[in-house]
Every structure is written in structure tokens, then in C-alpha cells.
Amino acid sequence: MSTRRIIPFSIFFLLTITFHSTAAEYREFQYTEVNSITTIFTNPSQSLLIVESTIPNLQFKSNRGILSQEEPTNGVYHLKLEPGVQLITIMADGFLPLELPRASYSPKGVKQIKVFPKPQFGSSSGFDENRPELNLNYKGQKESDNILVAIGNNPPQKIDFSNEQVILRPEPGNQTIRAWSEGKMWQSSLTLEVGQTYDVTIDFSQSTTNTLETVDDGNLSILTIPSGATIYLNQVKQEGQSPLDLKGLRPGIYTIEAVKELYLPTTQVVEVKPLEFPEITITLTPNFGYYQVKSNPPGAMISLNGRQRGRTPMPNPVEIDKGLYELRLMRDYYYEILDTFQIEPGVTFSREYELLPQFGSLEITSDPPLARVFVDNQLRGTTPLKLDTLFSGRHTISLELEHHHPQERRVQINDGKLEALHIDLASSVGYLRVTSDPSDARVEISEIDDMGSASEYQSIGKTPIDKLP
After folding, report:
1. How confident is the model at residue 124 (pLDDT cuts 50, 70, 90)?
2. What are the CA-CA distances from residue 88 to residues 64, 99, 100, 142 (Å)?
3. What average pLDDT does this structure show over 69-84?
4. How sure is the predictor about 126, in pLDDT bands with cuts at 50, 70 and 90?
5. Cα 29 from chain centroid (whole Å)
6. Which band of pLDDT confidence, cut at 50, 70 and 90, is reported for residue 26?
7. How far apart are alpha carbons 187 and 189 in whole angstroms?
8. How many alpha carbons lie under 13 Å from residue 334 in its C-beta half-sphere?
9. In sequence order, which residues have a C-beta less than 8 Å from that of residue 229 and are 6 or more positions away?
10. How do residues 313-328 score in pLDDT, each as one tens digit?
């Protein structure tokens, strides 16, 4: 039975991308904390977060707002934060957002982390994940050597060592690896364990004289339904994909393993006979179902088991491996949705999710109007102003207007709610009235500094003067 959880999450750059049903795959961040910090920060009203990364153009967001951010130097970012509990999200083009765990930032406190890409790994439907890895090396005269290699009692196969190394995935257990070249034989016996990697170098200077019996070679033509499968012959990966014509095989018993994404690995045992060229057809069993995901509103990023799979809505069901999946739907200004579902061969999982807003709206007015509005230190317009999408939580609203005292307020924005804020701005200038009898007297004015000294007098007109700012 699937479960559904809703947790807060947001992605800044989703708003700037046109929504499609498919998208390029995004990589993932990972991070580590730096404990040996030598930076001294003395501002008692702020905290400092230092982020070191080789990934260019990092972007940052906090649930409480970032007070200021210095331009990065050599990949090091300095973020000044308000002390208290912060939820920091790190973003960059081509990467899924990284949400740091909630942490408390103390006044004058310094935290430092390193952010780097998470390694990417390929897969073959889990076909050989339970086998050891054998790196077989040979550094002889590769252009003239004819190297044949056998695992256990299998017939020898010609191996291409043009890159000086081949990677074999033999069965675990006691195995003897043998190699022949120009009348010499080299061998090594190993105990191979699941999940372990072994490096072995072929060295014919430590070999014995052993010439393989001269025989007439056989051949195999391997077809798969569907085509495009990777073929392993006695645990040795063959170049190319099916259909394959394999020539020059020594007679004997061969185990064919056909591997293709979304299909079950299939094994077939054949006997290769001299001078024959049999055609082997292997029908692969489907190991996939289908899934289709929609959301309201649309445009949510879809992630399955940590891999980005496009955005909602998906116009048609998509093939996917059998198994259990964790689904994540992420859209800026909405809460993330987590769900799990099971895919069975031939079965379609289809569901539409309702995204819940993680934002509210704010109307700001002032008397007098036309004051500049700053939200968390970012200029958003002038009064009267309505902000339709403002992340839920506490925000700092600042108003500035020439000849008026600046004003600052803290507001709480709630999910799906409209808040109203009105601010009266007090004048920061006075007015002057000067009369004289008779009138038409010249009036000069001078500013007085803190020491009581007057600056140079300036003429401001003749009487009567009324309400001069």
C-alpha cells in the first residue's frame, strides 16, 4: 500500500523553465561539513555560512531570508544570515536542489560546508551487481599478440587488450583464469567474493609452455527478441549488441547471457561445433510496467528513486522496470509530495496529485503612496503593491520614500491566505515661514553642525516665505 507525505520544499529555477512532458536528467548534490574553521565573525546580529564548491553559479534560499551574500571568490561563498533556525536550499543549473537539514545559527557563529556533485553510476538492470569484478591487465605487444583467455573449464576466447585492460564479471567462488599466447600459458587461481574487485596482470614471463590443440573453429549467430541486447559469452562481454555474429570460437560448451534494460536477463547454453554457424534466437521476458503522473497545478518535477523523469503532466504512460519506487513531485511555491508505488509487469500506475500551496499573498499600501517596497532586502516595487506569491513564513517589509522616515515591519504569511499591510510614513523634513514688515527682505539660511558652528549662508528668497522644505 502506498504512503503519502507532504513536506515543505521549493525550487527557485522551476519558474524560469517552460514546462514539458520530458526534460534533461538532473544530477544531485552532496555535501560535507568542515569542522576546522578559522574564520572569525564578530557581528552579534548575524551568523555566517561559508559554502565551498567547484560547481559554478550556486544559488541559495532560506526560509527566513538571506541578509546578504558576497560575490564568490575561488568557489567560496559567504552568506550572512539572521541568527536562529534556518532551512537552507542550494541550487544550480543542471542539479536537483539540495536542502540542508534544519540547523540553529548562533549570533557571531560560523558554519562551513563543501558541496560537490554526487557520483553517477550506470546499470544493467542489476544483472551483474552480485558478481565480483575482475580487472584483467596485459601490457604486451597488443598489435601482434593473439591472446586467448578462459575462465574455469570454459573454452578459451580471443580477448582484445588494445586498451591494456578488460573487465570481467565471473561467478563468485574459486576460479582459475588462464591465458594462452604463442605456445605459452599463464594462469592464476583466485577466490572471488561478491562485491569485491580484483586486479590481475597476465605475465607470460612467468608462464609454462603449453600449445593449444589446433582445431577447426565454430561460429554463432545470436538474435534476440527484441534486439539491442548485450551478450555475455561464458561471462565475457561481447562487443556490440544483438543481433551478433561471433566467429572464430573454439568448439565447446558456451553459456549465452542476454541482458537488456526493462527485460529479465535470459540464459541459454549451446554447444559450438567445428565449421558450423547455427542461429540462436533468444526471446526476452518483459520486466516492466507503466506509470503516468499528473498534478494540479501542472509543471511539477517528477523524481523516481532520486532520478529526474520529467514534469507533469505526462501525456502517455511510460515503460519502467518492475519494482518499488519512491515518487517525489516538486514545484516552486508548493509543498513537495512523497509517495511510493509498486510496478508489476504489464500493469499501469496512474495517479493525479493535488499540490498544496506553500505561499500566500500580501497587499501593501502606504500614506503617502509611491514608497519603495523591500521584501527581505529585495526591491519588489512601489506602493500600492500586491505580491501574489510570497513564501509562507515571516518576512521583513521595508518602505522608503524621499523626505520621509523609513519604516520596517515583520509580517507572517500563511498558506493560501491574503494579508494586508498599511504603513503611515512620517515626514523627515519641517517647514519654514518667514515674514517681514516691510516685505521683500532677503532671507539667508545656514546649517549648524554639532559644534554649533554655522556653514556658509545661502539665499533662499525674499519675504514672505511660506512652507519651504
Report:
1. very low
2. 9, 6, 5, 55
3. 86
4. low
5. 5
6. low
7. 7
8. 20
9. 241, 242, 258, 259, 260, 263, 282, 284
10. 998 999 888 888 999 9
Average pLDDT over residues 339-361: 92
C-alpha cell at 356: 498544496
Which triple of cell numbers denotes residue 399?
518602505
The distance from CA 97 to its chain's CA centroid, rounded to whole angstroms, is: 6
Report the distance separating Cα 178 and Cα 34, nearest Å.
Answer: 49
Omega before residue 226 within 30° of 0, cis:
yes
Residue 312, number of CB atoms within 10 A of its CB: 22
Distance in angstroms (rounded) separating the CA atoms of residues 38 and 35: 9
Rounded CA-CA distance 241/228 in Å is 5
Torsion of CA 230, 232, 235, 236, to 10 degrees: -90
- The amino acid occupying position 155 is P
The pLDDT tens digits for 362-397 are 999 999 999 999 999 999 999 999 999 999 999 999
Exposure on the CB side of residue 397, measured as CA atoms within 13 A: 26
Burial of 34 (0-12, 13-18, 19+ CB in 10 A): middle
The per-residue pLDDT for 22 is 31
> From the centroid of its chain, how far is CA 241?
31
Q: How far apart are CA 248 and CA 148, in angstroms?
A: 11
From 379, 378, 409, 410, select the one nearest 394 (Cα to Cα): 410
Cell of 416: 493560501
Instruction: Name the pairing type of β-strands 47-53 and 110-117.
Output: parallel
What is the amino acid identity at position 239?
E
Sign of CA dihedral 161, 164, 166, 172: positive
419 three-class SS: strand
Strand partners, 357: 334
- Distance, in Å, from the CA atom of 258 to the CA atom of 242, rounded to the nearest integer, reads 9
Q: How confident is the model at residue 419, as a pLDDT?
A: 95
User: Which is it for the CA torsion 308, 314, 318, 324, positive or negative?
Assistant: positive
Cα separation of 40 and 327, whole Å?
Answer: 43
In this structure, are residues 223 and 210 in contact, taking their beta carbons and an 8 Å threshold? no
CA–CA gap between residue 283 and residue 263 (Å, rounded) = 10
Kindly report which listed range (104-113, 189-198, 289-298, 443-452) carries the lowest average pLDDT score.
443-452
Q: What is the pLDDT of residues 245-263, one digit of tens each?
A: 999 899 988 889 899 888 8
Over residues 400-438, the pLDDT tens digits come to: 999 999 999 999 999 999 999 999 999 888 778 888 889
Q: What is the pTM of this model?
A: 0.49
Q: Are 318 and 351 contacting, i.e. CB atoms less than 8 angstroms apart?
A: no
